[in-house]
Amino acid sequence: TMIGAIIGDIVGSRFEFNSKNIEPGFTLFTKDCNYTDDTICTMAIADALMNHKDYAQTLRYWCRKYPDPMGGYGGYFQDWWEADDRPANLSCGNGAAMRISPVGWLVNDYHEMLNQAKLATICSHNHPEAVKGAQCVATLIYWIRNGRITKEDVEHKMEKHFKYEMPELKDIKRIGRNGHFDSTCQETVPWAVRCFIESNSFEDALRNAILTRGDTDTKAAITCSIAGAFYQIPDEFISKAISYLPPDMIKILEQFCDTVKETL
Question: Is the pTM of this model over 0.90?
């Protein structure tokens, strides 16, 4: 469920601006981890979708409630949520894809799922690449949870339906070691999906995403939102992630889990 994205965000949080010296056996959860804007915005999308609220208003509500998360917000996005009537930015930032996982889980009609992914995106990120990135992540979750595709199908489907070029994991890691910071959907989404494709467990997908360095919390949030639809998430990862969350976020997560159970 969307707890996958939250786990990825929390584990990746401490490396977002300090990823140079990550070792393969790094500890997942430490006192230096916390939720970031990725989790806050994911909660907002889930809240809006489950409770029939406006996406823009709900994003602004949650961001204003938590204005100073670990790592902060992107500048353009913060300008957007701080104003009541600011139009969407022509942004292709990867924030569009890291928050979208609730749509892939909560909407059972394929065409409506694509529509909701678009609506949840264009309120703040109205660049075509942002919409494509969000729809891609939501679609992969939708397909996987419904048994429409296998992991072996993912790369072909990414290229056929979303026209993404899929770099090899070794190449992503090489770029990351050079201190590169990925921030756009068109870059981060295929990289995150590759981290899932080359994994053999939820934890392996999580570690792949973080070991590519760069925007570690967002890349891990996207990777783990997809991996969480395919793999069993360890119970200890779930309980550990929840321990970082405030009560109102836990309430949304509980509502989300109840809603998903009802629709399965």
Answer: yes
